[in-house]
Structures are given as structure tokens and as C-alpha cells.
Write a structure and sequence with these properties.
The protein has about 260 residues and is an alpha/beta fold. The protein has a single domain, classed as Alpha-Beta Complex (Spore Coat Polysaccharide Biosynthesis Protein SpsA, Chain A). Helix 6 runs antiparallel to helix 7.
Length: about 260
């Protein structure tokens, strides 16, 4: 057993100081949580990879549980963080746990989201609500937890970029015989989530190449990734091109009179 100074180490990457300070202000209002806060300053693009940044911070962390979260996470009441982390701690044995994720099963041949969080400026509900701890294939990057001891066993890889780092940890945990979970949470994610840009597609294809032999498909909170057949090569770029066309049309759409 390791020696820990805190129950939890909260680790966040800061690109904009004003966003971080708003996050910190909300965090200070949380009650009954034993934590240290580790800020990774990336305002000058000091890091080219979330995995590198998180590994560096995790190595310094003194908490039993590592909580990786975005600085645009907000807590909906003063016990949100306590209750959220207690639910995760009560799981006992797990690989990765979070507040939003994608189950193994499909809906109309697509992945879907299970969560109770709200997101965006208007605090919109997303996905399928859950009332208890739920097993998933992968969790969302906005908020996820690993035990420090398990992170030491499987630290983040050296894959560059800013996508799929929680997804990859989930896949590695499953291969290692662990299960991943999502718990109900009273949390607001101010962002509306990631987008399928070129780097997202590129890293997604890398994940398929690296782990595709272990899974019939990889479900994420953004989309399903095929790991077999011709579609594993064609579908990601098709989706990307389709999204770019929609953005172009939306940008230049003339307002109606």
C-alpha cells in the first residue's frame, strides 16, 4: 500500500487563466472533500500532448485517487464533488471511472452517451440518464478518475495530441482485465464537447490500429469507431468531410427574410 497525503489529487490543464480561476472559485465552495489541486499551466503551449502533461502531474500527485478534469467543469451544489467521488470510491475495483461514457452496446448501430451531467451555456441534458453506477466501454475526457496505484501500472502512453487519452486508458484497462464505469453526477460541463477535427480522426485511426484486434468496435462519447472491414478506413474521413460540409453551409447560409 502506498503512502498518500490526500484522498484525491485533482489535476487540470489550464490554457486560459480566467477559466481556471472560475473553476477554482467553484472548487473552493465544495465541502467534505480531502484533495490537493494540481494546475498544469499550458497557456504558452508548453505541452503538445495531454498524456505527457497528465503523466508529469500524476507523478507528483500525493492523492490515492487521481482526478483528471477540464477547467470548464462546474459543480451544481456544494456537495457535488464529494458525492461524485464517493460513488466512484465505492466501486472498489475499477480501471477508469467517470461522469459520462459510452456503453458496450449500440443504439441503431451507433454509440451513445450515458450521463446525468448538463453541458453548454444553457445547461442542456445530454445522452441517456442513469440512476446508478453503470459499466461502460469508455469514459469522456472531461472528468475521469484512476487510482494512483493503477496509473503507476499503466501510465498514459506517449501518443501525441489532445484526443482519446481517457478512451485509450479505458481500452488498456479492459485488456488488463478491469472494468470501467460512469456514476451519476451533479456537474455542469460548460463546453459542448469535442469536435471531429483532423487530429481527432488521425488519433482515432491510431487507436483502431493499436487496439482494434481486441474489440469489435470502439465506442466513444463522440462516435463509434469500426475496427474491422473497409469501414474502419473509410467511415472516419467520411464523417469528417460531412461535418466540414455542414459547417461550411451553416457559415454561408443566408438569413431568411
Amino acid at each position: 500500500m502506498g503512502n498518500y497525503n490526500y484522498e484525491y489529487s485533482l489535476i487540470t490543464i489550464s490554457n486560459h487563466e480566467d477559466v481556471y480561476q472560475e473553476f477554482r472559485k467553484g472548487l473552493l465552495q465544495q465541502k467534505d472533500v480531502d484533495y490537493e489541486l494540481i494546475k498544469i499551466n499550458n497557456d504558452q503551449n508548453q505541452f503538445d500532448s495531454a498524456r505527457t502533461a497528465y503523466n508529469e502531474a500524476a507523478a507528483k500527485a500525493t492523492g490515492k485517487y487521481l482526478v483528471f478534469l477540464h477547467p470548464d467543469i462546474r459543480f451544481l451544489d456544494e456537495y457535488s464533488l464529494r458525492d461524485n467521488l464517493n460513488e466512484i470510491k465505492d466501486i472498489g475495483d475499477f480501471g477508469v471511472a467517470g461522469i459520462a461514457g459510452s456503453p458496450w452496446k449500440l443504439y441503431r448501430n451507433r454509440s451513445f452517451i450515458v450521463t446525468t451531467i448538463v453541458q453548454g451555456e444553457n445547461k442542456e441534458s445530454v445522452g441517456t440518464s442513469i440512476s446508478k453506477t453503470t459499466e461502460v466501454q469508455t469514459v469522456d475526457e472531461s472528468f475521469f478518475v484512476m487510482k494512483k496505484a493503477y496509473w503507476e501500472h499503466i501510465p498514459f502512453t506517449d501518443c501525441p495530441g489532445w484526443h482519446f487519452y481517457a478512451v485509450e486508458q479505458c481500452l488498456r484497462a479492459i485488456i488488463d482485465g478491469k472494468k470501467n464505469y460512469v456514476v451519476p453526477a451533479r456537474i455542469w460541463h460548460k463546453s459542448t464537447g469535442g469536435s471531429e477535427d483532423r487530429n481527432y480522426v488521425r488519433i482515432g485511426k491510431q487507436m483502431v490500429k493499436e487496439y482494434g484486434n481486441y474489440f469489435p468496435y470502439i465506442n466513444t462519447t463522440v462516435t463509434k469507431w469500426d475496427t474491422k472491414g473497409i469501414t474502419k478506413y473509410t467511415t472516419p474521413w467520411y464523417r469528417y468531410a460531412k461535418r466540414q460540409v455542414h459547417r461550411y453551409l451553416d457559415k454561408y447560409k443566408q438569413p431568411e427574410n
